[in-house]
Design brief:
By secondary structure, this protein is α+β, with helices and mostly antiparallel strands. The chain has helices at about 1-5, 50-65, 105-130, 165-180, 185-205, 250-260, 270-285, 290-305, 310-315, 325-335, 340-345; strands spanning about 15-20, 25-35, 35-45, 80-85, 85-90, 135, 150-155, 215-220, 230, 235-240, 245-250. Helix 4 packs antiparallel against helix 5 (about 185-205) and helix 7 (about 270-285) packs across helix 11.
């Protein structure tokens, strides 16, 4: 750690290093030095070129007034340190806190939508204005709702999830949940939701989005949710974790983010906040109601077919996402029942 810090002029001498426990994809540490506080990020995927691309984007976004935390450059002007084959980046420590949708007023929800619209429009400017970064992500289909790695590739659209594959996955996960010993309350809920979801899909399989129905693509943050946004008071201080920077349908990111920020523990969306958020987003991003309607349909279908939390638990034996399951699984059911009301909240 001390050898790493010596790469950075003015970073000071290390006083302490504490792991940051939040986050699923990378490792982070809070460093206290004789010159201040920093956030050290260990990028587990090790794709240096992709990390540099993300860093350049945040540097450009900061110049446009977007609240971000660009990396600290070392003495040679580099922002990625490769040590022992591992990639690290040093960022200024941002004093702030995360705020979920329950902590946001309707007015603050509108500010959130405007912020995401600003991010999308500014990304199109900084990534496409002669910078040679016209690359995106190869992640396809509903698996994008759960944590996954990303690699640079041109965006070429994606097909919505085939329900036949989902039926097969449900059967496999249901067998794993029922075979778990000892079984607990989570396993019982998982089995119940899997059976319930199978019945829903049987009734709604004909509503699968057709090929080419996705909204217009553009540059997106790729993982816009409460743990990647820090507030100082009531104002956003920094959007962090740009690991999934990619070219994807912009309106779909807006809908996905709302489904994370504004979902209640019971699985219902706070629709008054969604309306304020979506209205502000459409205005800031220049998106029309038709684009948001298409995004609502595709993200609804995505959620109906997605079981990434259960795959983590039963296939990867990783339980870190378990606390999210109750609300996420209930949302898919509630959203199906209230489909028209949800679409109206995003488009009216």
């Amino acid at each position: 750690m001390r050898a790493l810090l010596r790469r950075y002029r003015g970073a000071g001498e290390l006083l302490s290093c504490e792991p940051v426990t939040q986050g699923l994809l990378n490792r982070g540490y809070r460093l206290a030095t004789t010159r201040g506080a920093y956030f050290l990020k260990h990028h587990l995927d090790g794709d240096r070129d992709a990390i540099v691309r993300q860093h350049r984007a945040t540097q450009r976004l900061e110049r446009l007034g977007v609240p971000v935390a660009p990396p600290v450059e070392d003495a040679g002007g580099d922002t990625v340190a490769v040590i022992g084959g591992h990639c690290y980046a040093l960022h200024p420590w941002i004093d702030g806190r995360h705020r979920g949708g329950a902590q946001l007023t309707v007015r603050a929800s509108a500010h959130l939508g405007a912020l995401l619209g600003l991010v999308h429009t500014c990304l199109d400017h900084v990534m496409d204005a002669g910078h040679g970064d016209r690359t995106g992500s190869d992640r396809t289909g509903p698996d994008r709702t759960g944590p996954a790695g990303s690699r640079a590739a041109p965006y070429a659209g994606y097909e919505s999830r085939d329900p036949a594959l989902t039926f097969q996955e449900i059967s496999e996960l249901l067998a794993l949940a029922r075979a778990r010993r000892p079984r607990d309350a989570f396993d019982e809920l998982a089995a119940h939701r899997l059976v319930e979801r199978r019945a829903l899909l049987e009734r709604h399989a004909h509503r699968r989005p057709p090929p080419g129905a996705e909204p217009a693509p553009g540059w997106v943050h790729g993982d816009f949710h409460p743990l990647n946004l820090l507030y100082r008071g009531v104002e956003p201080a920094a959007i962090v974790d740009w690991d999934r920077l990619a070219v994807l349908p912009r309106a779909e990111e807006a809908v996905r983010a709302a489904a994370i920020f504004f979902v209640r523990p019971t699985g219902r969306l706070e629709l008054a906040k969604v309306r304020a958020y979506a209205t502000a987003y459409r205005r800031a991003a220049g998106a029309d109601a038709r684009e948001l309607a298409a995004a609502v349909h595709r993200v609804w279908w995505e959620r109906l077919n997605d079981f990434w939390i259960l795959r983590w638990r039963y296939v990867r034996h990783d339980l870190r996402a378990d606390p999210q399951f109750a609300a996420v699984s209930a949302l898919a059911v509630w959203w199906t029942k209230e489909y028209e009301t949800v679409r109206e909240a995003f488009t009216a």
